[in-house]
Structures are given as C-alpha cells and as structure tokens.
Specification:
It is built from 8 helices and 16 strands. It is an alpha/beta fold and about 350 residues long. The protein folds into 2 domains: about 200 residues, FAD/NAD(P)-binding domain (3-Layer(bba) Sandwich), CATH 3.50.50.60; about 140 residues, D-Amino Acid Oxidase, Chain A, domain 2 (2-Layer Sandwich), CATH 3.30.9.10. The strands form 3 sheets. Strands 5-6-4-11-12-13-10-14 form an 8-stranded mixed β-sheet, with helices on both faces. Strands 8-2-1-9-16-15 form a 6-stranded mixed β-sheet, sandwiched between helices. Helix 1 links the parallel strand 1 and strand 2. Helix 2 packs across helix 4 and helix 2 packs across helix 7. The longest helix is centred in the first third of the chain and has 24 residues. The chain is globular. The protein starts with a strand and ends with a helix. Flavin-adenine dinucleotide (FAD) binds next to helix 1, strand 2, helix 5, strand 10 and strand 14. Flavin-adenine dinucleotide binds next to helix 1, strand 2, helix 5, strand 10 and strand 14.
C-alpha cells in the first residue's frame, strides 16, 4: 500500500476535521476509525456551538472565538463538497437571568463582548424571550448572536463525505494497523487520553460521561437556550435536543438512565412548550477531558512523527474548524505558532 502523508486514528469531529484540513491542502490522507464514524462523543444529538462568557479573556476563549467565526464558511464548504446538510445555522442564544446580581453581571459583560468579540457578535440584555415562552424571575435575558447549532450526526456524515470528496480515504471497523503515514495523528477521544496517560505515566486526562435527549419539537428558526446549565437546541430537521448530564464516574459509557429523566423533567419545567412533545431519542457518550481542561494539541511526547488532537471536552464541535487548521499547520508544515500555549502537549509533558 502506498505511503500516505497523514494517517489519522479516530473518526470523531477532531479526526475528521484534521483529515479535512489536510486533504484541503492537497495531502494524501487516510483515516482509521476502529468502530464507525461517530461511535464516540461526536455521534450525539446536542450540537451547541456556544461561546464562553466574553469577560476574563484568555487564549482559549480567543481560539474558540476564531473557530466559531470560521464556522459559517467551513460548514458551507462541507455542505457544498458533500451534498449533505450538516444542519448548521447561527441563530444565537438566549439565557434567562434569575437574579438581579445576574442581570448586573450580564450588563457588565456588554462592554467586554464589544471589546473581545470585536464586532463578530453582540451580547445584550433584553426583556423578552420571544418567540420562546420562558419565565425569567427578573424579566431579563441575555441575548447573544455568536452561538450556532449543527446536528452532530449529520455534520459528521457531511464532513466525512467532504473529506472523501477531496481524496481522503476513510476506513471503518477493524482495519489495517496504522503506521504507513509520514505523520500519524491520534484523535482517539477519551480512550486515547486514558491510554496516553498509561503509556506515559502522566495524568493526561479522562472521560466525562454525558446524557442527552432528542424531542420531536419543531422550533428550527428559534435561538437555542441555555438555562441553569442546560442546553435546549432546536435543529433544522424539526427536532430539539436537551443536554446534558456531566458524570465523572460511570460504569456504562453508552447507557442512559434516571439522570436523563431528571434532566428532561428540568427542561420541561424551564420550558413548558416541551412538556407534551414526544422523546424520540436518548443518547449517552463520553467527552474527552484533558487534565488541563483545554484542548490537547501537538506532538506525541514519546514518538517522532506522531501527534495528538484531543481534549475537545464540552466544546469540541465549536473549536473543530480551527483545530483542523492548526493541526494541518503542524503536521504538514511543522508550524505550531497558531496553537495556544495552554493547548500544547509539550506543556503537559514538560518536566
Ligand atoms: C452528551 C454530550 C453533549 C455534548 N454537547 C456538545 C455540544 O453541544 N457542543 C460541543 O461543541 N460539544 C459537545 N460535546 C462534546 C463533543 O461531543 C466532544 O468534544 C467531541 O465529540 C470530541 O471529539 P473527538 O473526535 O475528540 O472524540 P470522539 O468523538 O470520541 O472520537 C474518537 C474516536 O476515536 C475512535 N478510536 C478510539 N481509539 C481508536 C484507535 N486506537 N484507532 C482508531 N480509532 C479509535 C473512537 O471509536 C471514536 O470514534 C458533547 C459531548 C457529550 C457526551
């Protein structure tokens, strides 16, 4: 078999984004997914591309902002090359404000958003949640225009097809062992973090389980909601996702349970319009959480020619377009200047 330029392990959003970025630059790419595309955390239903708060600015927030700003063109190109709809739309987000203190904090963030979001999006405090029928104890809500949504499963399918359209080879199931690439990128999700920790004896990261549900509720033109840690995300196909639990210890990575029932009850209390709509899907997955709580990008600590793209944790889909680009810089051109210091593998393995 011919030597390829880049071999990628893992067919989640990180592996596929790296494959796409490298193929777009003309590299010969082969991706190996040991189960099937979307078998890991990326195969879920939520798909909120939502920013962190605009204050206390840092390089992680800056990276996320740049990636969210890239998203419309990125997903439009994916749709065009694949002929498939990733379900992307930038419709913003509403967040009810429960206390006067929260209102004051949110108002303080208006100027921070102007400064740090640099005109890319607006953060404001509004006195209506229309068209949603939502209670806010204060009568006020944050409205921000940076958040977008996509449908994770549809987006993965489209991204894989787009990468293939650019010549990338994608293999699913038990396939040939890797090792015929000039460069190998491990994008193997939480299992990869655990394995890397065992291999190196360094506390690299672990998995945090999440459960989410999909409802038959057609709010496709509405902004998503973020209330009390809960995402309510309307999709283009007439469904609405509710997510997610956050579980540091778990026995069954793929199983849903009473914690999801409790989440659904909370969502219905918050948003009475969801009270009588049917649940059409229940899903659980495990997020890759690096010990740094930031994405983990860079060279493998032990092996030349091997690289790591992992640690997407709760924002993997939002940062993926730029993760693909900076990994392509590194793997194809040996350039790391666009990888924030806080994300670099060298930082974790120094000392
Ligand atoms: C309930 C829940 C809700 C979420 N909601 C959001 C959200 O709204 N917005 C957002 O941005 N993010 C969200 N996330 C986080 C997001 O899903 C993750 O950050 C992202 O999917 C991580 O992508 P990944 O490609 O690194 O990992 P994964 O998607 O887990 O992919 C890793 C892949 O590697 C494969 N693999 C493992 N070992 C090997 C090997 N040795 N060889 C080949 N293949 C291998 C696995 O089978 C898997 O398919 C959510 C996660 C969960 C669980």
């Amino acid at each position: 078999m011919a030597m390829v330029d880049v071999e990628i392990e893992g067919g989640g959003i990180f592996g596929l984004s790296v494959a796409f970025a490298c193929a777009r630059r003309g590299a010969h790419v082969r991706l190996h997914e040991r189960r099937r595309i979307g078998a890991g955390a990326s195969g879920g239903v939520v798909g909120a591309l939502a920013p962190h708060a605009p204050d206390a600015w840092n390089e992680k927030k800056q990276f996320q902002l740049e990636s969210l700003a890239m998203a419309p063109a990125f997903w439009a190109q994916v749709a065009e090359l694949s002929g498939l709809d990733p379900g992307y739309a930038r419709l913003g987000r509403l967040m009810p404000l429960a206390t006067e203190r929260a209102v004051a904090l949110a108002r303080g963030r208006i100027a921070e958003a102007e400064r740090n979001w640099r005109g890319i999006a607006r953060w404001s405090v509004v006195d209506t949640a229309a068209p949603w029928k939502l209670d806010s104890p204060t009568g006020y809500h944050v409205s921000e225009t940076l958040s977008a949504r996509l449908h994770p499963r549809a987006a993965l399918k489209a991204l894989a097809a787009a990468a293939r359209a650019l010549g990338a080879e994608i293999e699913e199931g038990a396939t040939r062992p890797v090792g015929r690439g000039r460069a190998v990128v491990e994008a193997t999700g939480w299992e990869g973090l655990v394995a890397l920790g065992q291999e190196t004896g360094v506390e690299v990261g672990s998995g945090v389980k999440g459960q989410a549900a999909l409802l038959r509720a057609d709010f496709r033109r509405r902004p998503q909601l973020f209330v009390d840690g809960l995402h309510i995300v309307p999709h283009a196909d007439g469904t609405t996702a509710i997510g997610s639990t956050s579980e540091r210890s778990f026995a069954h990575p793929d199983a849903t349970d009473a914690a999801l029932d409790e989440l659904l009850e909370r969502a219905r209390r918050i948003c009475p319009e969801l009270a009588s709509v049917p649940v059409i899907g229940r899903w659980a997955g495990v997020r890759p959480r690096a010990a740094t709580r930031a994405p983990l990008l860079g060279p493998h600590p032990r092996e030349n020619g091997r690289f790591i793209a992992n640690g997407g944790f709760k924002i993997g889909f939002g940062v993926a377009p730029l993760v693909g680009e900076v990994m392509a810089d590194l793997v194809l051109e040996g350039r790391a200047e666009r990888i924030p210091d806080a994300f670099r593998t060298e930082r974790l393995f120094a000392g």
